[in-house]
Structure formats: C-alpha cells, structure tokens
Amino acid sequence: MHVLLCPDSFKDALSARDAAAAMACGIQRALPEARTQICPLADGGEGSLEALIMATGAERRQATVQDALGRSTCASWGWLADARTAYIELAEASGLQALGPAERDARITTTFGVGELFRAALDAGAEKVLLLLGGSATNDAGTGMLTALGAKLLDAHGQKLAPGGAALADLETLDLSGLDPRLKTLQVEAAVDVDNPLLGRRGASAVFGPQKGASPEDVNALDAALGHFADIAASVLGKDDRDMAGAGAAGGMGFAARAFMGATLKPGIDMIMEQAGMAERLATADLVITGEGKLDGQSLSGKTPIGVSRAGKAAGKPVVVLAGALGDGWQACYDEGVTAAFALADGPLALENAVARTAELLADRCESIARLWHGAAKTAETTAPPLKSRGTDGM
Fold first, then answer.
1. Domain 2-40+277-382 belongs to what topology?
2. Torsion angle in degrees (nearest 10) through CA of 62, 68, 69, 71
3. What pLDDT, in 10s, does the model give residues 90-119?
4. Which of 258, 259, 376, 393 has the fewest CB neighbours in a 10 Å radius?
5. What is the CATH number of domain 48-269?
6. Span 142-172, pLDDT tens digits
7. How many angstroms separate the first and last alpha carbons of the chain?
C-alpha cells in the first residue's frame, strides 16, 4: 500500500509538514509495511514558501529587507538553482502577522521589502519567480515593490511620494525609466486565491482593507487613491488591468505583478502542486490523504484539499480529506473528487483542546483509515472469484 500524504497547515495548530508527519504516524501504527510519501502543500497563503522548499528541495536563503512599516527584518526566500527559479512569499517581507493589531494601517504599509526580495533573486541569476501573494499587510497596489525596483512615483512638485496606498492620491508622475532592466526577461507567476478586481465593492480596499486596519473612511480614500494610480498606470503602459480577476489580491499586488511584470496569475494550489510534481506522485499512490483546518462550500474556490481532490479525480485515485471542522456546504466537495471526508474530533471538544490535540487526532483518524483500507482489501481477496484455469478450453 502506497499512501500519499499532502495536507495544508491546520491554522494555529500544526504546520503542513507536522500535519503530514502525524498522518504518517497513524498509517504506520496500523500498517507498518505501508509506504508513506509526505508532500506538504499550501494554496499560496501562509506556509506556501515552506511547502515549496520541502517539495522541491530548494535552498532556503535569507535577505535583510524592509517590513510593511519600513523596519529592517530578515526574510526567507527559496532558490532552485537548476531551474534558475526563485520562490518569493510576499508575507515574508510585508506580512500582516508580523504586525501587532495596533500597528496595522493600510494607508501607509508598503511592499518595498518584496521588491528587495526580487532584487536578491535577480542578483542570484533568477530567470523565473513564483510570487506567493497571501497574508499581506499592504494596500499599496505593489507600488512599494516598484519603487524598490527603480520606479519613481512623484507628486506635482516632483517629490517622491510617501510609502503606502493613501499617498497615491497625490501621484502626478510615474517614471519607469529606472526600473531594473532584468525584469524585461524575467518570467513571473503569481499565486492568487481570490478573483477580486483592484477597485470597487469587491476590490482590494473594500474587501481586504478592514482586516489591515482601514476604517470605512480609509477604505473609500484608498479605493480612490488606487483608482488614480490605475489611471496613470494605464496612460503610461497603454493597457489597463484593473478589472482583471485577481488584480485585488494582496492589496493590489496582483495588479502590479500583471501590469508591470507581465505575470501570469494562477491558483496557488495548482502552482505548488506543479512544482511538487504532483502528477508523478499520484501515479504511484494507492490512496491520497489531504486536509486543513476547515472544509466547507468555500473550499471550492481553490483551497488545498479541493485542488488535491481534483488532481486525484483526474488520476483515478481515491482522496480522503481530514478537516478540523466540516462547515456549511462541505458535501459539494464530493463533486470535485473527494472520496470521503471526516472531521477530526472524537467527541465534543472546546476549540483550545481540539487545537492542542490536532496531531493526536490526525494520527488516530489515519490509523482508522488504514485499518479500513486493509480490511476492505482482505475482504476483496477472499470473496473474489477464482481465476479461470488456462489450457482447459482450447486456449
């Protein structure tokens, strides 16, 4: 029996790597002879860099960059030398989790540090960058990144704009003449797990701004400022990507990646599975087990268990999903290739107890799955009709 274990992280409880290890422990308890293959995954959000590094064997590198508030911080990025490919996770430089609740201010946070990570990758000789856009603290439409890469954003007096999205209301001149020339030949793929446009009721400011510290008044001002930036960008570039699905990802970083880098935007889980060689892994698997904190109807928008299940369905492999909770509409996941889904809890549990016991519960559920699989296989062997003898019917 060959079991492929490819969970996402269980938020506030286990990393994807630790979740996969717990799953493997349970399988081995029931079937010591089983072969388990661990492949932690993510959907482009938190933990995606770790998943890519583990799945591909990429080198983890460090760079000193600015965080979302302009302070010095150490950020990780991945380097796959043979493929000349860099993995850049926006949240490593400009992540929301690095800021305390009182520090979150969508008006002034910047993606400058992401641009510094791009420079580090280019200096290493990168020909391709996979940009992971989840978990941002920013709402600057990627202008901080552009500034770090040599662009100039000036006001009516020829002065550089202050960092952040709010300052874009004063933008008069967008000068791209100093933009790093190496970007012209750099291939960029950006992982997005939302389809929001840059502006409007479903835009970056309105949907994601409040969780980054924006008041209702800030949201309106930021939306107008990003719209002004988009107007000027369109006049400079001769194209307008503001309405593109995913343009609003990571505070408008999806817009910047597409408009200024020609990036291809794609679901994060698809990107990470491709890098992890999921097709080859599935080909040799008898059973696939995946999971994350919650499975519900919203998971169909591109969450890891559904991406795995769709790939498993295409390969003709059974996929079991283990989730901390099964929410509204989870049954729709059966249509996406989920063979079976189970919640982890073994009885009524307070949230803090469930979080503390996540590894134990994952191992227990996987042990039960392995026992069921083994029992079904033995039953199939004993009830199968005998093979017809050859050589008795003229053959």
1. Rossmann fold (3.40.50)
2. 0
3. 999 999 989 999 999 999 999 999 999 999
4. 393
5. 3.90.1510.10
6. 999 999 999 999 999 999 999 999 999 999 9
7. 34
